Amino acid sequence: MAALMRDFLPSHLQPELRATDIEGTVAVQAEQSEEETRFLLGLAEDHPSIWGVVGWVDLADPRVGDRLAACRKSTLLCGFRHIVQAEPDDRFVLRADFRRGLSCLAALDFTYDILIYPQHLPAVIELVAMYPQQRFVLDHLAKPQIRSGKLQPWARLMFELGRATNVFCKLSGLITEADWTHWGPGDFKPYLDVAFESFGWQRLMFGSDWPVCLLAGTYAQVVELISSYLHDRPRQEQTAIFGDNAARFYRLKARTDGPGTRQ
């Protein structure tokens, strides 16, 4: 993990955005603190390449409704994420206090990013069915076991989750689930195929997972991996996955002085 033991700021990402023709980004929380959320919003205010922020709030807090209402003051705050993958309870998302907080998001037009491992999928499938008006996005395809080449039961559960039309899925975090030093594009095709069959191109979005992706490759390699997979697909699908779907899901608005043309 030594590659991540330093600061990563928008100035470090700018050359990567220019080189890959990416126009706008969404900064997603890495720490479960409101202080980090405020920090990310401050960066977004100062850097036009950040079109939105996914932050953190304690959804189990009895006063979460008031906290969320205060958060609504920022037009750059899109939604929230909790690091569910770190919770010891595989059914954490079904806890009454967590669900009570989650139930407040839709009314305020906030999204929810789902960060889990495959073993959490059954509980998440139950959860999303309870909140059909809530916009959810599954991060990193729920981190399938790419390194071992295992597909089931992950693939079956992905098909089931994809039936919920309020759930999107990010094509992100793949290379760090593979062999960090010996991965190749073919390692990911079965998993990307499942994502397409489960969600369809209208509910898939590219995600870089930068800077975590640096453990196994470069920002440009992550972009190329998805670009190559989409190469033979219609231009409309490519454009949707590399920006339009994210803009629609997060309600993003282009900021006029960004560096490129894709989102």
Secondary structure: number of strands: 7
- Structure annotation, total helices: 9
Overall pLDDT level:
95
Distance between the termini: 28 Å
- The CATH superfamily of the largest domain is known as Metal-dependent hydrolases
Shape: globular
Question: In the CATH classification, which architecture of the largest domain applies?
Answer: Alpha-Beta Barrel
Strand order of the largest sheet: 1-2-3-4-5-6-7
Biggest beta sheet summary: 7 strands, parallel
Determine the structural class based on helices, strands and strand pairing: alpha/beta
Radius of gyration: 17 Å
Q: How much helicity do the residues have?
A: 25-40%
Total domain count: 2
By CATH reckoning, the class of the largest domain would read Alpha Beta
- In terms of DSSP E residues, the strand content is 5-15%
- Spans of 5+ residues with little confidence (pLDDT < 50)? 258-263
The helix/strand order is HEHEHEHEHEHEHEHH
Plain-language structure description:
The protein is α/β, with parallel strands linked by helices and 263 residues long. It folds into two domains: 21-109, no CATH class; 135-251, Metal-dependent hydrolases (TIM Barrel, Alpha-Beta Barrel), CATH 3.20.20. Helix content is 37%, strand content 12%. It is built from nine helices and seven strands; from the N terminus they run H-E-H-E-H-E-H-E-H-E-H-E-H-E-H-H. The chain has helices at 10-20, 34-46, 64-71, 96-102, 121-130, 154-162, 189-199, 219-229, 235-250, and strands spanning 25-28, 50-55, 77-82, 111-114, 136-138, 167-171, 204-206. The chain has a seven-stranded parallel sheet with strand order 1-2-3-4-5-6-7. Helix 5 (121-130) packs parallel to helix 6 (154-162) and helix 6 (154-162) runs parallel beside helix 7. The longest helix is centred in the last third of the chain and has 16 residues, at 235-250. The protein is globular, with a radius of gyration of 17 Å. The chain starts with 9 loop residues before the first helix and ends in a 13-residue tail after the last helix. The relative contact order is 0.15.
